[in-house]
Specification:
By secondary structure, the chain is α+β, with helices and mostly antiparallel strands. It has ten helices and 19 strands. Strands 1, 2, 3, 4, 5, 6, 7, 8 and 9 form a nine-stranded mixed beta sheet that branches. The C terminus is likely disordered. It holds the Pfam family Inhibitor_I29.
Length: 443
């Protein structure tokens, strides 16, 4: 009997070991396929093995949720499946919690009920009305607030002017520094106020998104293509008011986007669980119902490989006044009552003096002057460039420190106890184009 028991015990654990090896092999194959699908490569085999372990942990989380069979939404191994939950939260959020908590308490003139006339429709989708631009991707920069803000401005501009224009998040990241903090977080209300104070905002095409902060491009800051005239804060925890606002136009909202299920969401009506600690910003672009369950249509800024091609359906009328993930707590939208400025005239040649001109988008650099009077000019093939004192080089406006000995341009700024030094190859003696970008940290 003891021999039989020993044989069965050995057979059981042998089978368990074989099953574990088989399962591990399948996960490895799935991971390889996933890497190809999402274009993932890793610096070393050690890093890849670590990412495989993270991927396997997320796989188990996804399958456990989906196998429950009683959830209104499903998860998937999307483009974030090789990130730990901590890594995901550190790189993909960006609503400024401090700013939001201040904003929640105010009762200033921007806080009022939406101006909706007539009966609120049972459903609305502003995508079908052409008031929503393509899904964008904030990357590893915590600038969700800027995407939410531009999305709301894009929507009201389309509704008011009939023209859908994709607007520049990079301008907000680089230039809106009164209260917002670029990739370190911000708030939509402050972004709206920035656009109002600046008398408009540039297009995404002209001031393209880079996924990192740069110095503010003052020339592009003056290219005001779309304007707004004010903004309104929806009363806190008032879902009826929020519904009326979305019936009028797309609305910016703060939510808690840091739950693990949010990271790996695939489709269906998201019901949580999630807290109401606001740390992410999105755009509500409509609402509807499915099988008697009401939902918001939420546009995210994590690219088209997340959720339903970049969108999520989030439970509406949950019975909680704050809403699922706090979606009813921090909602606002821009107001537009005046037309956009006329399109700027096409830029012409840059005038150096009465007799000398450089081409469109170039900068005049003096190479020989006497008593402050320039006698010889050269053209730097960069807009708003800095001319170096040697008369042979020029640097871009966001790398304004000339180091002609090493033939590089520098940008210096302090960050806590560190000094960041970013170097870029400077233009040659003929003021030509740029070479590679080098980045490093000095403690």
């Amino acid at each position: 009997m003891n021999i039989l028991f020993a044989l069965l015990h050995t057979l059981f654990f042998s089978c368990l070991s074989l099953y574990s090896s088989f399962a591990s092999s399948n996960i490895s194959q799935l991971f390889e396929t996933w890497c190809i699908q999402h274009g993932k490569t890793y610096a070393s085999q050690q890093d890849k093995l670590y990412r495989l372990r993270v991927f396997q942990d997320n796989y188990e989380f996804v399958t456990t949720h989906n196998n429950q069979g009683n959830s209104s939404y499903t998860l998937s191994l999307n483009g974030f499946a090789d990130l730990t939950h901590h890594e995901f939260k550190a790189s993909r959020l960006g609503l400024s919690a401090a700013s939001a908590s201040v904003n929640l308490d105010h009762d200033g003139p921007n806080l009022r009920m939406p101006d909706f006339v007539g009966d609120v429709p049972d459903s609305i989708d502003w995508r079908e009305k052409g008031a929503v631009t393509q899904v964008k991707d904030q990357g590893g920069c915590g600038a969700c607030w800027s995407f939410s803000a531009t999305g709301a401005i894009e929507g009201i501009n389309k509704i008011f002017s009939g023209s859908l224009v994709s607007l520049s998040e990079q301008e907000l990241v680089d230039c809106d520094k009164s209260y917002n903090n670029g990739c370190e977080g911000g708030l939509m209300d402050y972004a709206f106020q920035f656009v109002i104070n600046n008398n408009g905002i540039d297009t995404e095409e002209d001031y393209a998104y880079l996924g990192r902060e740069r110095s503010c491009n003052k020339a592009k800051l003056r290219r005001r293509v779309v304007t707004i005239d004010g903004y309104t804060d929806v009363p806190q925890n008032n879902e009826k008011a929020l519904l009326e606002a979305v019936a009028n136009q797309p609305v910016s909202v703060g939510i808690c986007g840091s739950e693990r299920a949010f990271q790996l969401y695939s489709k269906g009506i998201f019901t949580g669980p999630c807290s109401t600690s606001l740390d992410h910003a999105v755009l509500i672009v409509g609402y509807g119902s499915e099988n008697g369950v009401d939902y918001w249509i939420v546009k995210n800024s994590w690219g088209k490989n997340w959720g339903m091609s970049g969108y999520m359906h989030m439970l509406r009328n949950s019975g909680n006044s704050r809403g699922v993930c706090g979606i009813n707590m921090l909602a606002s939208y821009p107001k537009k009552t005046s037309p956009n400025p006329p399109p700027p005239s096409p830029p012409g040649p840059t005038r150096c003096d009465l007799f000398t001109r450089c081409g469109e988008g170039e900068t005049c650099c003096c190479t020989h002057h006497i008593f402050g009077i320039c006698f010889t000019w050269k053209c730097c093939e960069l807009d708003s460039a800095v001319c170096c004192k040697d008369g042979r080089h020029c640097c871009p406006h966001d790398y304004p420190v000339c180091d002609t000995t090493r033939d590089i341009c520098l940008k210096h700024h302090s960050n806590g106890t560190r000094m960041e030094i970013v170097a870029k190859k400077s233009s040659s003696g003929k003021f030509g184009s740029w070479s590679s970008l080098l980045e490093g940290w000095i403690l």
